[in-house]
Amino acid sequence: MKSIPAKSLDRRAFLRQSLYSSIAAGICSSHPILASALECQLADMPRTLVNLMLQGGADFRYLFMPAPNHPEPSYVPLIWNARRSLYSGAYQSYQQMFDDQYLLVADPLGGPGFGVHRSAGWLKDEFEQGRVAIISNAFCSRNRRHDQSILNADAGLPELGLLNFDRSGWGGRLVEHLGPDHNSIELAKGVSTFNKGSALGDRLAQVVHASDMRNMALALPDDGNPASNRNVIARALQSYYAGRGPELAQARPAQWPYHVFFKHFQATSSFGAAVEQRLQACRLLPESLQSLNLNSADFAQQCRNLFDACQVPDVLGLGVMSMSYGGWDSHDNEALEIAANLSDLFGDAAGFATALQAVEELPYLDVPAREQLVFYVASDFGRQIVANGSAGTDHGRGTYSLLIGKAVRGGVYGEMFPQRESNAGPDGLIPLQTQGADIEGLTSTDRILSRAVDWVKPQAGASVFPDAGSAAQDPAFAIDQLLSG
Amino acid sequence: MIPFRGYTMLATNLKSLMLGLGAVVMLDVAYAQSHFDPDRQPFPIPLQNNQIVTLSGLTTLPQEQWNAVAVRKVLQSFAFGGHASEQQIKAWSEMPPELAITQMLNFEWLSPEFSAPDGDDESPEFCQSMTELQALWGSDDPANPMRAAERRFYALLGPNDQLSPVGLYLAWSRAMYTRGCNLFLHKMAFYLTNYHASIHIQNAGTGLIRDYYDDTLSALNAGEDFIGLMLQAASNGAVAMAYGHASNYVHPITGMFSGNDDFAREYFQLLFGIEGATEDLDYHEGVSIENNAKLLTGMAPDLVLNRFDSIARFDWLLSNIDFTDHVDSTGRRVRNRTAHYDFALGPSSCLEILHQSICGSTAAEKLQALGRVAAAHPESMAAIPLKLVRFFADTVITPDEAMALQLAWDDADFDLLRFIRAYAVSSQFHDPSRWKYWSAFERNLIVHNATLLDNEEAFAKPIFTDPLLRMSAQGAIPFAPIRDVFGGQTGNDAANDRFVFKNAWAANVETPETLAAVSQILQRDGSGNPPRWSKDWRSVLPANQQGEYRVKEVAEWLWNRLITDGGQEFDMLARAQVYSLLATGFDFTLVLEFNDQALQGQEGIFTSADLQPGTIANQFYEVLAGMQLDLADPRQQHQLGMAINFISMLPFAFASGGAQP
Known about the structure:
The complex is a heterodimer of chains A (485) and B (661). Chain A is α/β, with parallel strands linked by helices. Helices cover 36% and strands 12% of the residues of chain A. In chain A, the strands form two sheets. In chain A, strands 1, 5, 6, 7, 8, 9, 10, 11 and 12 form a nine-stranded mixed β-sheet that branches. In chain A, strands 2-4-3 form a three-stranded antiparallel β-sheet. Chain A is globular and about 75 Å long. In chain A, 54% of the residues are buried. Chain B has 30 helices and ten strands. Chain B has a two-stranded antiparallel sheet. Chain B has a two-stranded antiparallel ribbon with strand order 3-4. In chain B, strands 5-6 form a two-stranded antiparallel ribbon. In chain B, a hairpin with a 5-residue loop joins strand 3 (325-327) and strand 4 (333-335). In chain B, helix 8 (183-196) packs across helix 10 (206-221) and helix 11 packs across helix 15 (363-376). The N and C termini of chain B lie far apart (55 Å). The interface between A and B is large, with 81 and 93 residues.
């Protein structure tokens, strides 16, 4: 048992002094802002993989369309017929639609040119500069169900058929491999399965929820009136959580459901305050990010969080981050919905363009932060290649995977607009004329991600994706080429 | 000089504490005298044969284990805590559980013993409909108890003369703490519309999603079984608009289908839990889902000219689809009969779905036929009971528990109410190791319902104290499910989100008056001298045999009102704070430090060992526990609210169950 000391002068004196001085002065005393005395410590970014999940099943076949002079002559009329209902009825021809809706780009790897939707101007520029790898005919699941497919994608297990969210994600496994000082940083509102670690009952052990980087700290007792209702409740709670938490951590089994709240207290009271303090001492949010106005306010906030996370990589233990953007389930009015989403993500002066420009300008010691970031763009699944009757597309399977970053060897990998889609298959049906047909998945995303993880830390891929070695791979390209280093 | 509000109270309370130091504390835990309304008595209801609640797989809790704690657990899990009086809870705990549960959980519009209307408030008469509640609370009707300045927030129409989503959010939140509304009925409707067959207000619109909720209330009240409830959902105009199949059609001449298969897929997965795992994948995708898309044709909702006086045409939509060919009140020709698949064949129009021939001349008729097939599908029979139990009561269902629930669901013959009742009195539900994390909806409403004492208080408090504000800051907005059709925030979501925790903490710390306020001017009509509402915990708080309110007894009563674990987790460190807050209005640390008894250099953080008998801290602890509250003093009424702020932010307010031996 601890002995009760005769006096604990410092704190008692402080409390009394505060009490009496506030009575005397009639105002709450305030201390100088400690943060202003702090200096922003520069720390180099470690290599960091950012997983962007587009929830709902993004139709990347809408983002990318073949050039009117596509080398396979039958392909363009077929795809135009299959998908023209997605576009305005005013277009008289594919050429007219393409010229109005798409930007023609050349493949840095020498493949045929193709169109990138105009709403994704930044992506087009990045692609032309060789910073975007488009991996065609990828698949992250074998089913067409949102929940199961997102779980497959987050877990990095395309073949998983069990809908159980109490499992590790590939981001969580990667940070475990990186070491105990690393965390998976969730920049979005909800913590996804992607971040979760392997320890049953403690899957958030290496997860930092950073949905508002500048507002992460718990409301603890402040230096105002110690007898205010605010401070009374804050102090009572702080005393309880800090005192009882360690006792119960020992006394109760790991599966006890209430541990998580004591961990929240620990994380938000100490870690959250440390992050906030460092950020106050570092750069303010640039005006471009403060005023970033997107269709999705949530994604705009994630972009701010991304910038701030890059300012404090050592505090956060970077290596893995997670972002998300919902609203891709484009069963109807696809053009309207998807164009708004694409412009938020990839538009000129939109989300990524603004955030990464700001990151580009961050001071650094040896390696610019921007060079240490690679983004992987994931989604539940691709969509069917033939439009439905509601100016939209229904759930499919195969899709395109995107890797974005300066470390990426940009270009198109695999057959972007497969010839099989315009030829009759064994059943005699031409996929581009068949309702329900989808992009054939040839390359498991395990393969792609395993390579990306190797970029973060050599040899890590095999640990994070143990099945990747035997997973499906389109023989048309070598997966090692995707990233440099 | 600005008066220092806290100092006088601190001095007064600490003075009484000092006087009490060393006094012998007499504890008497027997509650004999109470302040209940003498006219209100519990009354038994004869048990009908059809109310037998036992089901295969589930064992009813023995009478000796059925007690007030068990009753409170049912109320918290199934009805946001409810509004039952202490006397009623005691009465239920003394009845056979099978009998008590039929009184506690039913789908009647009003359930007086469960949530008694009080005063002259007429709101409960409108509890069967969010539309009617909003119409009342947003009006200048003399019967409207709403503060005059706040009525506009509840009005059906917003300032832009279109239906107001905010009004709906606020009305739903308020209904969940208005005495007289059957909160079990509402929680079930909330589950069905916001989780199970969920749609989002952004996709359905304010009017339709409100209709959908009201339609679901009506279907539950009418005694529809699970199949009937799913038929109501699947054939509802709100769902058709949200998913977009309202415009699906089959060309009457060419027979070409035009539309999407969105709901055709989710009908199976979300409404019935059929993922196709036991089906041939190609058959499920290519036959069941594709044909279901054709079934879901001819489902365009009508427009009612100038409905709600809204200027937005979208607000005129009706959820109740007319499946005939007709002209609606706007003069629009609606061809739901001829736009439906193979309309020329009439009742002989059939589609193969789930290996059955599903026939009917309209989508409604085919949905009726398909519902029976889908509900009886093995995947559905396995999934539905688990979905229900996971939402209401159990975050982690073991395989053995799952099997028992599936047996019970089979035995219940799709009778949702019978299943829930049997589960709510089962040993499985009352197993101490069962646990469930609360969503922010549940936690905030449970705390609010435990804190508000009557409808006068509910309507006296300003709008910014509504739990909707806290819920939304913690990621939970009604009718805006975070996963859209996959449903709203779950308890698991809330528990694993540090920002939910941080924001919940901030709410209790930064705005403690939300729960602690004991007085407020009533501003119903803004004229004359408005009366003042004052809180009196004595209306519900039992005094002891001596007619006293001793801190320890009050603390335990409050704990059980909020946490409902029989005091299992009410450890010494929590007690020290609660005793101190109740007795003085200040935390234990401040009390000790003011009395020159700070603990060893830990900034007010101490351990259980610090409170063991023989320590000075323990002497304070014991004295605080034995102090008597003077509840005629509004400041001491306020201290109960301070204690609630503390208790409701402890880990044990974020979940139910999970007891450890």
